[in-house]
Design brief:
The protein is α+β, with helices and mostly antiparallel strands. It has 7 helices and 15 strands. Helix 1 packs across helix 5 and helix 2 packs across helix 5.
Length: 309
Amino acid sequence: MTTTYSDIVNEILINMAGYTMQQDRATSLSSPITSTTTTSVSVTSTTDIGKGIIEIGEELLWIENFDRVGNTLTVAPWGRGYLGTTASTAAVYSKVTISPTFPRSVIKRAVDDTIRAMGASIFAVKQLTFTFNSAVTTYELLDNNTNVTAQNILAIHWEEVGPSKEWIPVRRWAFEPFADINTWGGSTASPAQTVSIYDPITPGRTVKVLYAAAPGTFTSDSDVFTTTTGLPLTCKDIVILGATYRLLTFLDPARAGQTSPQADEIDSKRNFGSTSSVMRQIYSLYTQRLAEETLAQQQQYPARLHYTR
């Protein structure tokens, strides 16, 4: 069974809600939203609707007023794509979440931030191949004619001649992460990367380069976790824990006394800092699991000695 971006977001949502203990109020669209500039929204019920934020899909909208008789909502002129979300269309009967505690767009941002942060400790393992030419020492690292961004080279092998199917380790090589722009092209922001090979290799044989790269981030709900990030499925819970502690971090600032004395009185039953202990516990689990996966990866891909000349 594959795990997609949408699966991860949904798991975080149900975890943050205490499974079913806390549920955001919701209704449905009674007619589709066919334009990204529409300011009138029809819903099946306005019972729980009030002035403020609603979520449709991944878009946040600011509702200026509402008609309980006609079950219509009026979006403020600046209310589409609210708070940096993207205005989009929506099908009839799409879910409308009222004042979402954790908007999907925010969860996705936390997931991507976590994956990027994990790149400092754990890496995606990728490989590329090229054909050896005895007249050439240095080769540009390309995958399907596209420059790769390698953090380091883990190992290099070349395919032995004959039916043995043996891949012989290359002992002498040098990696250049920022190759000369005049020679190889590219730019300062996206330089070409090269590897120089000094071992005697039979011309025409295939050379395989195993390299470490930063984990990739998601672009679509259907993106598969292992394929997109390059990380093993055992890292899924690390991403979930990392996103969770990031989301919990910003709950307490919302309870700070900066609105009115009445708001302070309402919040008196929810002490400021009450989520800090939970956040610290989840962060501890996150760092523990990240350390475990980092160690497992180091054991699977130990550092290999090689010569540069």
